[in-house]
Amino acid sequence: MQTRTETLASLYQDGFFDIPSYQRSYSWEEPQLEDLIDDLRYLPEESNHFFGNIILDKKDEQYQTDRGRRFDVYDVVDGQQRLTTALILLHVAAQFDDVVDETVSEDNLIFPVDERPRLMPQDQDGEFFRDSLFGTASLECETPSQERLEYAKEYFESEFEDLPVREISERLRYDCKINVVEIDSDSEAASIFESLNDRGKPLSSLDKTKSFLMYMDDRSSNRGALETKIKQRFGSIYRELFVLSNGHDRVSDFDEDSVQRFHWGIYDGYDSDEYFNSLDTLKDRLREGYRNGEYDAVQQEIDEYTQNLREAASVFAALFNPSQRPDEVEFALNRLLSLGRVANVLPVLMAAQMEYGDDEPDKMADIVRACETLVFRVYATDGRRADTGRGKLVRLAHSIHSDDSYLFEDVLSRLDSITRIYTDDDRFERNLRDPEFYDSMSSQDIRYLLHHYGEQLGVDMHEEAQPDLERILSTDFEVEHILARELDEEHIPENLREDFEDNIHRLGNLTIASSYWNKSLSDLPFTEKKNAEGRREKEYKSSVLRVQQILATYEQFGRDEIEEREQQIIDFALDEWGIASEPQPSGGSSTDEGSDDVEYDSLPDSFFRRLTNRQEAFIRVLLEENDWIVNQEIRQRMENEYDLSSGGSRAVSGILSGFTRKYSNGFTWNLVNYRTTGRGTEYRLNPDSGYIEELRERLVPSTEES
């Protein structure tokens, strides 16, 4: 090992510098770039700035040009971030100042030969660095590190508009002193780099993993048998994880280490210590295998792990690019991602994307919807801790990935079971009935619920008047109290005057309003909101929101209306985010689901498993009647015979909307007929559907069973 001290300019003239494969990608961002500029700006005259240690590994073979020129080549073991940034700064400075350009060119600091610059980043970034950042090509960024390299160049270009470029360039070249350490071998280089990582260098777990695997591959095989695979796979991983910069907004909740953690659960199962320290566990296994002389096993583990991690990065990227998924998956993913709190279900979604993905979009969409139900019930409505159910969900992800006998139906049944453990129907309903509901959930979650309820109202009325979910969850909209929180006593309904405060925050008294509407009109009495004289565009009837429009149909709004509306929304929620009453096997045929164009010769595979309590009771009533039956009687029998709340007049249409959302509009109307008579709306099971015998066989107990 040799040491020397020299300036940055003299170091660059020593030869070429390569970033080895075990190194991390370029990681400097604005704070580090700003610190470098400040150091150079405020360096006292005739003073030197210590630029840090640079550890180099001199290669045996020199770089030789076509004309016979030879250059020493060094692998940069430590210091690559500083050397890379300094070269970018000099390149930009040369574009701003002709004298800098001339002196840098005379010293051959940046391009001593035409085919490559002094320094080359590792595999996946080399072409971008040479041809786009330092050349004339216009290559799109494909990795986060390429984006950071481009940002560094743009940052210096912006700063040099107002700074003394020549002075800063000269200070960097001649006044920055570097302690250069040369080491003797590849194995020493990898070992030193790993030691630097362990002493707290700000590296991601993914960066450390790559360097460690390169190191262990070199030790357990002849000349790194897996080196090419590891390079290629990590190159692909970094490209896939560019989604962290350009994917769905919700991806900002995660980073490279999150992806590696989710993968470990899929790959190895769940142990709470290992889940958050997967690299340490991997190191222990590979080191133990190496110490025991099990070199083939070490090689196999490296091969399997990197291949699996590469696939995990790919499916993570797929989930956060919903617009590139099949329509039904895109729709389901956008709903779930808008809801948030997806960290615990992401391993399940990643494993499911590996297993079903774009090839079986109906199954994938069903799993996404089941995850949405779990997240909405357990975390949003019930307010459970962020780690609730984590172990169960990660173990499920591992089963999906590693157990060939684990069926699609098992996945959905297990998701329903986990949801039921923490927030069963009774608890879900109690949460929705909380007299302080307004304060028990976030504004975004309440708007999420009421938005989807509004969509169901639009389905019932065969119209679409609803802004999209993204807008509803933005600052453009707020939760509105239908009966304002501070009403003069004369405007409080008579049957609420004694306990007005106990009812004002109930779900039935909440709706959505635009922020402007809420600020200007929310404190008005109900009658003035319903009919805003001289301001038709402000009244409920003219609202663009169906959950406001429907309020114009109420003659008055008091205790009975709050209770009726609350029941209607709860009935909707129990259908929309429903779980099977008990785990059930699937029935029916293998017909595809989820499209208006699908024709079902028999019931969809998941029909019986996905029945909610209310849907099942509804069908049982129709089977028992075996003829037309009026809305009111259906609701009364559901209450009397199945102990389910009767709900309001829209309860049945909510049940039917649930079938439409799960399957298709055509399926719903093929399943159930309806007609309007003098008695009201009547329903029956469609005798021509071909479903009745299958329904009766599965849902109506035989005489012997009775």
UniProtKB/TrEMBL annotation:
GO molecular function, one term: endonuclease activity
Residue ranges annotated for the GmrSD restriction endonucleases N-terminal domain, each copy included: 9-213
Region (Disordered): 579-598
Any Pfam family: GmrSD_N
Keywords, ordered alphabetically: Endonuclease, Hydrolase, Nuclease
Domain GmrSD restriction endonucleases C-terminal: 422-571
Superkingdom of the organism of origin: Archaea
Signal peptide residues on this chain, from the entry's feature table: none
Spans traversing the lipid bilayer: none
InterPro entries: GmrSD_C, GmrSD_N
Record protein name field: DUF262 domain-containing HNH endonuclease family protein
Organism the protein comes from: Haloarcula argentinensis
Taxonomic placement: Archaea, Methanobacteriati, Methanobacteriota, Stenosarchaea group, Halobacteria
